[in-house]
Amino acid sequence: HAKNCGKNNAKLYSSSLTMQIMSHVKLEVGLRKALQNDELYLLYQPQIDVASAQVVGVEALVRWRHPERGVISPTEFIPLAEETGLIVPIGEWVLRTACRQAMAWQSIGKRPVRVAVNLSAKQFKDENLTQIVLSALHDTGLTPELLELELTEGTLMDDARATMVTLEQLRGIGVYLSIDDFGTGYSSMNYLKRFDVRALKIDKSFISGLPLDSENAAITRAIIAMAHGLKMAVVAEGVETDAQLVLLEEYGCDMVQGYYLGHPSPPESINQMLADQCAMDEPTI
Ligand code: C2E
Ligand code: MG
Ligand code: MG
Ligand code: MG
């Protein structure tokens, strides 16, 4: 009897595993076609300067409108894109689309709007990355300083020769480099100093417990102090409440991003935000 049970379990297990593999393969086949079928699109989340309460940047966040499954989150398909190498063409599309959009915003906003694009480690290792960045900037006409590239600690810590060369080249181009999800990976303070990183983005896991969580409050303050000591700016991610915003302002955090300030939104919503901002700035007499 016991033997039978085991056999059935094995059968069940293998058939569900088969299904998992099949759906994985199906998703991969779909992802290969997603670009040419125009199924990818970008949402943009505002980054607000704490001192002026103005939008100073937006982060581009990719979505996949799957013909059968509806909208799929990047947390599901970016890992698949990395595994399959599809991240390179997808990443290039994201970069170009974001740069083009940022150019359009320059004429609406009163001040320059930076656009932030996430780069995965795989993209970073692609030997053509700097060429891709240069041509996206060239073709759209966007100023390099208005393109922010978000790297992770893991990407920087990989001390392969190629990583160094790429960072040097990006520095040469003059793009704005930031470290995403800061505090969740391994960082060497040496690297931060060396690579001309302009901003640290404190991971939302540190922000979510604020203001009550005293340990995360201490970590947040320490990151801000360190960043400022190294002449870097700080962005808090995942700001969801007014109490968090008030505390971060008190700590001297430079920029905030999160649902409280604005959800990832289609470009038209950002247009509106920028236009409203201009209206607010007009003198009232
Ligand atoms: P990320 O770069 O750390 O982006 C921030 C994530 O936090 C986004 O999730 C955003 O929607 C979410 N978020 C923003 N505000 C809040 C908040 O107040 N509370 C909470 N709980 N979450 C908030 P999303 O859009 O699902 O993206 C997930 C991750 O996927 C990103 O994390 C990024 O690592 C990756 N990703 C997104 N777009 C791209 C892309 O174009 N290329 C690459 N390589 N990765 C991307
Ligand atoms: Mg990011
Ligand atoms: Mg990221
Ligand atoms: Mg992040």
Automatic annotation (TrEMBL):
<feature type="domain" description="EAL">
    <location>
        <begin position="24"/>
        <end position="278"/>
    </location>
</feature>
<protein>
    <submittedName>
        <fullName>EAL domain-containing protein</fullName>
    </submittedName>
</protein>
